[in-house]
Amino acid sequence: MTRSYSVRTYGCQMNVHDSERIAGLLEDAGYVAATDDDAADLVVFNTCAIRENADNKLYGNLSHLAPVKSGRPGMQIAVGGCLAQKDKDVVLTKAPWVDVVFGTHNIGSLPALLDRARHNERAQVEILDSLETFPSTLPARRDSAYSGWVSVSVGCNNTCTFCIVPSLRGKEVDRRPGDVLAEVQALVDQGVLEVTLLGQNVNAYGMSFADPDTPRNRGAFAELLRACGAIEGLERVRFTSPHPAEFTDDVIEAMAQTPNVCPQLHMPLQSGSDRVLKAMRRSYRKSKFLGILERVREAMPHAAITTDIIVGFPGETEEDFAETLDVVEKARFTSAFTFQYSARPGTPAATMPDQVPPEVVSERYQRLIKLQERICLEANQELVGTEVELLVVADEGRKSAATGRMTGRARDGRLVHFAVDPAAGIRPGDIVTSTVTEAAPHHLIADAGVASIRRTKAGDAHQAGTTPTTSPVGSNVGLGMPTIGASPIVETASACGTGGCA
Ligand code: SAH
Ligand code: SF4
Ligand code: F3S
């Protein structure tokens, strides 16, 4: 009997993309996507551990599933991702009804672990300390017909004192440029218009190739951007995340000189205080950060720059926080993901003295949000009257459906709800142009009517309910593993979903 599955994803874009691999593996193993998530025979949680509330959320969700599982014989629950990597068999202590716990380094083992759990009627826990299989060599069931994620690296060699990611994702391993580009090309061949290159620190790309025969190359990321520029049909290239310490001018030049690289940059600040940055072991300083933004804007005057900021890092004083507000005021970010510091087990910051009381963190956090909202709105208001080119999206349009608008992403990444004549037959994946008529802090409105429509292959694919079927690309050279052979993936209905920051 065919078993249905549902994957629930938490956390960052890496996890969103890993979930595409998990779905691809499951479909290769004969599972089918559940039409009703609540009735799936298999529920996979792909978890995140970046902040403490992620833990609480997972165990709460697992509790809700316990009675469902006892009422449905044969149902299985698997927990993977970063929180599984962190908690290991504790997942089973807290939720003994879970069938499989797998980590970030062995996604490929999931189908076998599920079989073993069923056969042995015993929960299976398999967590490895280092990467077993490059996720990019696994099959994928892609979510979108028009946008694709492509990993350039996994893991992180930095040691930011607040961050649990390196202990859960391991040391950085870079893919060969040829493998990355082959995957991009395969997506574009099937109509994908937009690709986002993924890595915890894309600026370090080139220094940790898994393949011993690929020479280390500091300029590898800029070269990769330029090579993407040569791929015909690829209209939009984005990447996340760069690290300010290693952000070099060759990347700015490559961005500015490569027309399909979007005028958008997500550049995590974390704090505006030099003292706090030092304690965070983030090796850039306020002036360097602002200097990068200046050079980016010189080269790309309309670049939208976004960031991540942590409020309440241990020892953060009111003066330190004022420095953060000052950078925010000067940097004029298009948007900012703001986080209250959360102590993570095993990280140096967790045991630092002078942890900031929650009420102080919360009060600062509110002030930061208020300032950033004002800046978001001001920056968006400057765009009223300008023309925007939009890639129509399916996933973020729910709110605008009620108003008769559709939603698109501008080249700079901004979300734009635009008025549309239903008779025009515009589909997610098509490209339209319109004029901005109104601004809000987190989106723009374009009610001037659609000036042009370009129907695309991606739009056709979305309408037909198909998504790209990239065969596994690349090899495990350097990981001591054989290459996995090409594995066809059945075309599946598109259920678009992209993840924001954790
Ligand atoms: N590799 C990325 C960050 C990935 S984590 C980078 O360096 O840019 C995404 C964001 O979560 C971080 O940028 C940081 O702002 C936030 N974050 C990480 N650890 C955190 C913690 N312990 N408490 C609060 N926010 C945290
Ligand atoms: Fe974490 Fe720092 Fe690595 Fe980003 S660069 S994943 S914040 S350790
Ligand atoms: Fe892991 Fe991403 Fe969360 S790397 S801890 S899923 S933010």
UniProtKB/TrEMBL annotation:
Question: Which NCBIfam families would you find in this protein's record?
Answer: miaB-methiolase (TIGR01574), MiaB/RimO family radical SAM methylthiotransferase (TIGR00089)
Cofactor (UniProt): [4Fe-4S] cluster
Q: Which organism is it from?
A: Gordonia spumicola
- Annotated residues that bind [4Fe-4S] cluster 1 are located at 12, 48, 82
- Give the SUPFAM superfamilies listed for this entry: Radical SAM enzymes
Record keyword Membrane present = no
Q: Which family does it belong to?
A: Belongs to the methylthiotransferase family. MiaB subfamily.
Q: What is its EC number?
A: 2.8.4.3
The lineage is: Bacteria, Bacillati, Actinomycetota, Actinomycetes, Mycobacteriales
Chain's gene name: miaB
Start and end residues of each Radical SAM core domain: 142-378
Query: Which PROSITE patterns does this entry report, sorted A to Z?
Result: MTTASE_N, MTTASE_RADICAL, RADICAL_SAM, TRAM
Subunit-level organization: Monomer.
Function according to Swiss-Prot or TrEMBL? Catalyzes the methylthiolation of N6-(dimethylallyl)adenosine (i(6)A), leading to the formation of 2-methylthio-N6-(dimethylallyl)adenosine (ms(2)i(6)A) at position 37 in tRNAs that read codons beginning with uridine.
Which coarse location class describes where this protein primarily resides? cytoplasm
Stretches assigned to the MTTase N-terminal domain: 3-119
Q: What is this protein called?
A: tRNA-2-methylthio-N(6)-dimethylallyladenosine synthase
Query: Where is the sequence biased in composition, kind Polar residues?
Result: 464-474
Q: Which residues are recorded as binding [4Fe-4S] cluster 2? A: 156, 160, 163
Domain TRAM per the UniProt entry, residue ranges? 381-450
- Cellular component GO terms, alphabetical: cytosol
Q: Which Pfam families match?
A: Radical_SAM, UPF0004
From what superkingdom does this record's organism come? Answer: Bacteria
